Amino acid sequence: MKLSIQNLTFTYDGSPEPVFEGLTAELDTGWRLGLVGRNGRGKTTLLRLMLGEFAYQGKIELPLQPVYFPFAVPDPEQLVLSVMQDAAPEEPEWRMLREMNLLQLKEDVLYRPFSTLSKGEQTKALLCALFTRQDVYPLIDEPTNHLDLHGRELTASYLRKKDGFLLVSHDRSFLNQCIDHVASINKTGIEVIQGDYDSWQQQFDQRNAYEQKRNEDLKKDISRLTESARRAAQWGADCEKGKFHVAESDVASVDRGYIGARSAAMMKRSQSTVRRRERAAEEKSRLLHDVEKVGELKLTVLKHPKNELIAVENGAVQYGGRTVCDGIRFKLCQGDRVALTGENGCGKSSVLKSLCGLSDVLSGSIHLASGLTISYVPQETDTLKGMLRDYIRARGLNETLLKAILRNMDFSRDQFEKDMELFSQGQKKKVLLAAGLCVPAHLYIWDEPLNYIDVLSRQQVERLILEFEPTLLLVEHDRRFLEHVCNRPEISLQKLNS
Q1: High-pLDDT (> 70) share of the chain, %
Q2: Which of 150, 168, 200 is the last residue of a domain?
Q3: Radius of gyration, alpha carbons of the chain
């Protein structure tokens, strides 16, 4: 069955720029379709429009009922079974159990309050409810944000066996494992190809290189036509002045009428030439295509007099007297780039916060080098409210530098004048990351820095790390990113069974 989008135009109230203008695409509901594009291009907005949540111009024809993931859970204290039944009404329990088995969720989970599940378990339970239904078209928005590495691989394998869905994700490895088509929202429209993410990336790089070269040629043509129009205009102006400036010795023999007529004809001809060349330059300008420019990021890495920056021995993470992880032991030296890994709920974020002095749940022998400057990027974006300039002032950051970093990460200038609550999740995460990059530091501690961030920006951050070689301790579940940037084996935390 076909999903048809015809001449779709949509603008948020109060926004000067449309999110979509004349967007057209023909898709198939049987595809395992990955939807990609830079932050702020309207991926989640497109899903919301398919659901009919906003009024728009144009037409969206979808033969199946669209269902958005993740579902809202109004009462997290409900039993998981009740939450799943609300999400998949009238579906038999055996179907839920079948899906749960595929995602390795135990049956006893059904009879626990939803709030007691880890974020990863909650994601899996809601996915099971979604695919219990047979009569819907799943719109899956960023399912990997709360999944650890094992959970992502398991979920990708699960989705690969399903028939048709639309999936928004920026995890390249995850997309490669579960999709068979890619739809990319570009500056000027939507592009659809058959294949996985790597197939799309290869075509994207080739097309971007071609478009870049074509744009350079077009800009040269525009410059040449503009200069030609300027010279023609100057020639016409000189002709017009010529009929009033005749040497005195020639006055007696000059026919003023003839000079005026000839000057008028030449002026008309020059004006016609100017208009023609200006039109040609304008038409060339409209041919400039949607090259995706990826700017360079910079970092100021401080040198510490000590080589060893952090040492943890016999560490344990405790919540309310309950130990969730113990036996934590590692050292971090200058130049190390290492990931802290482990299943959901084992205390990874708590370890990072404790090292930054933002939590006291990590106990044991913990030594930080004296005078150590740490730049911390938190996982949560909920604190970002109000105007960007007020956030910059409150953090004591360099406004020019932070905005330059955001511009290089595809922020438009008009975003700087919006309330940050209106930013997409990816844009909010970029603000936190840019703030972290503004701080000169000996050690960079990042907690899931790539959540919601588009692929091109992930590649920017990869290049930044490889160029400036900061000392880096991070929690991140994008396997390809970790393979590219880490230079030491991961530090694995083991969750205690309780």
Answers
A1: 83
A2: 200
A3: 30
CA quadruple 76, 77, 81, 86: dihedral positive or negative? negative
Query: Would you say how long the chain is, in residues?
Result: 498
Q: Are residues 22 and 157 in the same domain?
A: yes
DSSP 495: P
User: Is 455 in the same domain as 404?
Assistant: yes
Triad 42, 126, 430: Cα angle to 5°: 35
Q: Which residue has the tokens 């038409």?
A: 283
Q: Tens digits of per-residue pLDDT, 176-190?
A: 999 999 999 988 789
63 with 181, same domain: the answer is yes
Measured torsion, CA atoms of residues 20, 23, 27, 32, in degrees rounded to the nearest 10: -30
Q: State which residues form the domain around 330.
A: 308-492
* Cross-strand pairs, 6: 59
Given pLDDT bands bounded at 50, 70 and 90, which one contains residue 252? Answer: very low
278 and 340 fall within a common domain: no
* CA pair distance 169, 463, nearest whole angstrom: 21
Q: Which residues does residue 5 pair with via DSSP β-bridges, in sequence order? A: 25, 60
3-state per-residue secondary structure call for 381-449: CCCCCCEHHHHHHHHCCCHHHHHHHHHHCCCCHHHHHCEHHHCCHHHHHHHHHHHHHCCCECEEEEECC
Whether residues 226 and 194 fall in one domain? no
**How high does pLDDT run on average in the chain?**
87
| Residue 302 domain-assigned (yes or no) | no
Least trusted range by pLDDT, from 142-151, 265-274, 300-309, 396-405: 265-274
pLDDT digits (tens, 9 = 90+) for 71-122: 999 999 999 999 999 999 989 999 999 999 999 999 999 999 999 988 889 9
Q: Is residue 313 part of a domain?
A: yes
